[in-house]
Amino acid sequence: MPNDNLRDSPRSGAGGADEPAPESSEAPMHRKREAHGGARAGRRPAAVKLFVLDTNVLMHDPTSLFRFEEHDVYLPMVTLEELDDNKKGMSEVARNARQASRFLDEIVSAGDGDIESGYALKGKTHGEALGRLFLQTHAVSADIPDSVASQKADNVILGVAMHLKERHPKRQVVLVSKDINMRIKAHAIGLAAEDYFNDKVLEDTDLLYTGMLGLPEDFWDRHGKDVESWQEHGRTLYRVKGPLCPALLVNQFVFHEGERPFYAIVKDVKGRTATLQTLKDYSHHKNNVWGITSRNREQNFALNLLMDPEVDFVTLLGQAGTGKTLLTLAAGLMQTLEYKVYSEIIMTRVTVPVGEDIGFLPGTEEEKMTPWMGALEDNLDVLMKTDDEAGDWGRAATADLIRSRIKVKSLNFMRGRTFINKYLIIDEAQNLTPKQMKTLITRAGPGTKVVCLGNIAQIDTPYLTEGSSGLTYVVDRFKGWSHSGHVTLTRGERSRLADHAAEVL
């Protein structure tokens, strides 16, 4: 494409795209969904950026073509060729490559624009993306240092971006890539480069919803003036009014430590009024769950969620040794074998190895998954030893019964399934992408409870970060729903060695 045409691409309402782009401190447009007011109204500001996309962005998120709002998108020919090379197969990357190619075909076939002036993107997004798509149609030459001037695909894309920057000095040209080394090389040759931010739920995971809130010392002084209280199903409920209430979320835990500790869960929020319900004390042995009692405040919060039949979706975050799997399994066994709420427990996890892959495994689906389920076996050993009076025969019979009610499934065969009256545990959920997480959670049929466990500090999947993990995604999206709950477990209970290792290593 003769790149001079980028200067003359149609603009409505604002000056030409070649006007100088003002220095701006705001976040990139693909990171912040709030576009300028003018862009929403159909006008395009003068400072329209030109984003050059690396192939890995499209293979990570095919919809990235439409995530740049009022700005233009440029695809080098190498990007299209790499999409073509990666389209074969059944992997997530291959599926994304095929979807990106389909999107490109639809944009070009729609006929809204031409190869010279670019193709409009707004048709596919109902006016959300006001930019245009440009495709490279001829060879370019750019002065890039000899140290990177090879014909490797990454360097060809860098060359195209440099050429665009030279041809349009008044326009901001930005390379977008998921490859850290690619961005470093771009910065080294004086080219603006950014990561693709649109899929990140949070910039800082310290801001992630913890599921609980410590009440200030003066909470009852400010909120207890017209407090109402009543009893329901053995629990005490309080209706309080005050300035803190609008910030509370349904199923968020609130607590107040001191001489008279107060632990409650938010059941309802309406403006400046909130209804708080006291919790069941699972730290007392009379309320033990399959022989397990909570050892700290967060574990008690978690058991209140896991044992509540009205809560369909539970997420538990926490470092190694905080008791996520043990509490979840104990609650599942209690509700499956004792209370008969669920027909069986299904456990699954992502099979991403920490070190070198050991290759193919023999046997059935369940046998192949067994090496990945060491956490399940370890926790079952603990749970089977809780009944001291049963004797060896009794414990063996219990073990057989438990194993008959726990099924281990692979993620690869989940699509299209529906689980009815099941207790579904998704272990190591931090290694799932948001799309995989959606696929799993939507398997839930009537009467099914889904529990996601994970530690976002231990992500093994390439290209996934704490901010873009599927676990972070669901914690943020489900907060405040009346049938879901979340707790971040902070205190390790495994051993003094494990706790110290987590702290110092």
Summarize, please:
With 505 residues, the chain is α/β, with parallel strands linked by helices. The chain has helices at 37-40, 55-60, 77-85, 92-109, 122-125, 153-167, 180-188, 219-223, 297-306, 324-338, 365-369, 374-384, 391-405, 434-441, 470-478, 496-504, and strands spanning 50-53, 72-75, 113-114, 118-120, 132-135, 173-176, 192-194, 212-214, 228-232, 235-241, 253-256, 262-270, 273-278, 313-318, 344-349, 406-410, 422-427, 449-454, 484-489.
Could you name the CATH topology of the largest domain? Rossmann fold
Main sheet: strand order: 3-4-5-2-1-6-7
- Tell me the strand percentage band: 15-25%
Q: Could you estimate the helical fraction of the residues in percent?
A: 25-40%
Distance, first to last CA: 54 Å
Averaged pLDDT, please? 81
> Which structural category do the helix and sheet elements fall into?
alpha/beta
Radius of gyration: 27 Å
Main pleated-sheet profile: 7 strands, mixed
CATH superfamily of the largest domain: P-loop containing nucleotide triphosphate hydrolases
Structure report:
The chain has 505 residues and is an alpha/beta fold. It has three domains: 3-194, 3-Layer(aba) Sandwich (Rossmann fold); 205-278, Elongation Factor Tu (Ef-tu), domain 3 (Beta Barrel), CATH 2.40.30; 289-504, 3-Layer(aba) Sandwich (Rossmann fold). The chain is 30% helix and 18% strand. It contains 16 helices and 19 strands. The protein has helices at residues 37-40, 55-60, 77-85, 92-109, 122-125, 153-167, 180-188, 219-223, 297-306, 324-338, 365-369, 374-384, 391-405, 434-441, 470-478, 496-504; strands at residues 50-53, 72-75, 113-114, 118-120, 132-135, 173-176, 192-194, 212-214, 228-232, 235-241, 253-256, 262-270, 273-278, 313-318, 344-349, 406-410, 422-427, 449-454, 484-489. The strands form three sheets. Strands 3-4-5-2-1-6-7 form a seven-stranded mixed β-sheet. A six-stranded mixed β-sheet has the order 8-11-12-13-10-9, with no helix packed on it. A hairpin with a 2-residue loop joins β9 and β10 (235-241). α10 crosses α12 and α14 (434-441) packs across α15. The protein is globular and about 80 Å long. Mean pLDDT is 81; it is low at 1-29 and 31-46.
